[in-house]
Amino acid sequence: MKQALFTLLAMLCMFSACSGIRYMEIEMYSPAEITYPSGVRKVLIADNALPQPPDTNCVYLVGGIYREKCSAAADSALRDACRFLGKALVEANYFDDVLLLDEKLRKDSANYYIYRKIPPEEVQALCEETGADAIITFDRLIFNTKKEISKSEGYVNGAISVYVNGIAGSYLPDGAEKPVAVLVSDSIFWSEWGESEKQVNSLLPTPEEALRIAARYVSEKICAAFVPHWESGQRWIYTSSGSRWKEGTAYAIAEKWDAAAECWQQLFDKTTNQQNRARLASNLALCDELTGKLEEAHAYASTSATLFAEFQGEEALPTLLQNQYMKRLDQRIDDDRKLNLQLQLPAIMEF
Question: Is the overall model pTM greater than 0.90, yes or no?
Answer without folding.
Answer: no
